[in-house]
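Protein record
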Amino acid sequence: MKSIGKSGRYVDFRLSGEEIAIGATVRTALSRGVRIPEERDYRYKICSSRSASSIAVLVDASSSMASLRRMELAKGLIFRLLQDAYIRKDRVSMIVFKNNSAEVVVPPTSSPQLAAKRLAELTTGGKTPLAAGLLKARDLLRIETRKGYVPILVLITDGRANVSISGDIKREIERISEAIARDKILTVVFDADDFVSLGYAREISEITGGLYYRLKELSEEKIFGVVDEIRRSFSF
């Protein structure tokens, strides 16, 4: 069970307490357009003695010259995270989006064997239903949050969405990103656009308050290191 109190690791914030959550306080002030927080902006830490993570790797499997590399990077990340997931009590999942929909190909698990079985026959190709992928990841992580896990979303995409759910791609992505932010889902976006970033990747990171990296500038080891550092912040 998870014990919430003053000791342990910082997992959330609230409007009253003893220790100020600096990041949440600064973000609250900035949302009002001010740089120096006032008392009404103060947010206070909620700490947990245990907070295992549930990490959803959301990968763009649509057709492009870089799609196979994105998939291989995602698979490698999954297996690296699963190496000690059982010990940490973490869970890892993988969602792919392509053609007209998104699919959970690896449900939340701490088993490398299950992941290997599910990932063996993945294919790439088709259009880019980015909004559907974000929505699927948000729904999965909301369920994981209710089970007591810290939700982490890792998005690997060039952001060039071309399939909508209801007609307005840009607004859909904005709304779902806003919902991810409200749900306090920790987000890191790896922008796979090889040239100028023309997709929605940076916008998603900004709306969710997440981290943003250009994929072409990172090694496989660095990608793992970024995600591992986030989950270690919420370990035992």
